[in-house]
Amino acid sequence: MSDLRGARILLGVSGGIAAYKAALLARLLVGAGATVDPVLTRGARHFVGAATFEGITGRHVRDEVWQDIPDETHVALGRAADVAVVYPATANVLAKLAGGHADDLLTTTLLAATCPLVVAPAMHTEMWEHAATRRNAAVLRERGVDVLGPAVGPLMGGDAGAGRLVEPDEAYARIVAHLQATRSRRDDLAGRRVLVTAGGTREPIDPVRFLGNRSSGKMGFAVAAAAAARGAKVDLVAAPSSLATPPGVERHDVTTALEMRDAVLARVDAVDVVVKAAAVADFRPAQAAASKLKKAAGAPRLELVPNPDILAELGARKAGGGLRALLVGFAAETDDVEAYGRDKLARKNADLLVVNDVGAADAGFGVDTNRVVILGRDGSRVEVALAAKTMVADRILDEVAARLRQG
Q: Do domains 8-185 and 193-406 have the same CATH topology?
């Protein structure tokens, strides 16, 4: 049992047969010393009464926006929480959270909360597998919400499948992990300058065509956002991307590998950390056509020349004492992922190398989740299981911050 004294948890409970498990979760949290504020939807009260949660938590249960306003408004509840959890989260609650709705106390409170949010879906398999529900879950993950589960197992009505609420001890462990991470990360990069590259470069063939790759930039943007949230001054060198610039981040847009190299080298001497998350094209056409190539002229013959290896160039400078920054590289692989990663770590002289399998459907390019292995030049190995890229970004920065503290 962890020591959660001083922690304040917002426990949202929505309507479903699994709502009784929320009382067990509340008991675990209170037993560890946390203050738990229960917020029930109207549906939840059909399954578990307010008296149960008041007895366990010693806190008044709220379920209406207009209730007890002089004591504590929904805004105050949201701001006070160190972690918020919705356990269980119905398909309807997922939809409302994804859409930013605020039509009851729970959704209104969560819209005002700035702390980590964990949602644990619970519903019938058909509801969980519906395209709308899966999209809502993906939207929440993209925003950094930790979608926990659902598990696979027996469901109400005698059937079984995906949609079962994760057990209270699993939800408890995830809440503890968020609390510990939040406590250790607060301003741990304050006073540091971080340079991040993101996205896939484009090498022009003619004015309308280019050589490129499938990188969306989501991982790099997540790293930039997380670094800024932890107090760093962040420069983001971004290849073409429709992603919004994270708060507190200074963005520098580039298109080609050569432009990215110039932008990085212009800033690298002033930073403490370089995170090379961009997917930089290895080759470019030797010469781009001045006007659009016509199909009638036949297939063009492209002569390709190598692009500069920015990570290798920085690694060489570091080896020669010309770069003081901590150097973090990425390796997007599809086969023998970790072996290639270790080889790249050594060849590029990086301090850390983040390896991921971009051939996996739920990780890599264009999706909101990732699973990675973080390899260190010191021989360390940290495996990060499938999680939102925002969470993966923080785990990468945990390793960065630890090394900066070591000097």
A: yes
Q: Distances from the Cα of 177 to the Cαs of 119, 171, 224, 279, 374, in angstroms?
A: 14, 10, 22, 31, 19
Dihedral pair phi/psi, residue 337, rounded to 5° = -55, -50
Q: pLDDT tens-digit profile of 1-41?
A: 567 888 889 999 998 888 899 999 999 999 999 899 999 88
Candidates 92, 213, 356, 370; catalytic one: 213
Q: Name 229's Cβ contacts closer than 8 Å, sequence gap at least 6.
A: 248
| Domain spans of the chain, in order of start | 8-185, 193-406
Q: For residue 356, indicate whether it is catalytic.
A: no
DSSP classification of residue 188: T
Nearest-angstrom CA–CA distance, 32 and 308: 54
| pLDDT number for residue 64 | 63
- Answer for the pair 13, 38: CB distance below 8 angstroms, yes or no: yes
Cβ distance 165 to 149 under 8 Å? yes
Neighbours of 406 (CB within 10 A): 7
The C-alpha atoms of residue 96 and residue 98 are separated, in whole angstroms, by 5
**Class of the CATH-defined domain 8-185:** alpha beta
Q: Which residues have a Cβ under 8 Å from the Cβ of 66 and sit 6 or more positions away?
A: none
3-state SS of 126-172 is HHHHCHHHHHHHHHHHHCCCEECCCEEEECCCCCEEEEECCCHHHHH
Q: Which residue's structure tokens are 């993966």?
A: 392
Yes or no: say if 178 and 260 are a contact pair by the CB < 8 Å rule.
Answer: no
Q: How far apart are CA 220 and CA 399, in angstroms?
A: 16
What was the pLDDT predicted at 70? Answer: 46
Kindly give, in sequence order, each residue whose CB lies less than 8 Å from that of residue 376, ignoring residues fewer than 6 positions away: 351, 352, 382, 399
**Identity at 252, one-letter amino acid code:** H
How far is it, in rounded angstroms, from Cα 52 to Cα 300?
Answer: 73
Domain 193-406 top-level CATH class:
alpha beta
Residue 142 has pLDDT above 70, yes or no: yes
For residue range 341-398, list pLDDT tens digits in order.
888 999 999 999 999 877 777 777 777 778 899 999 999 998 887 777 887 898 899 8
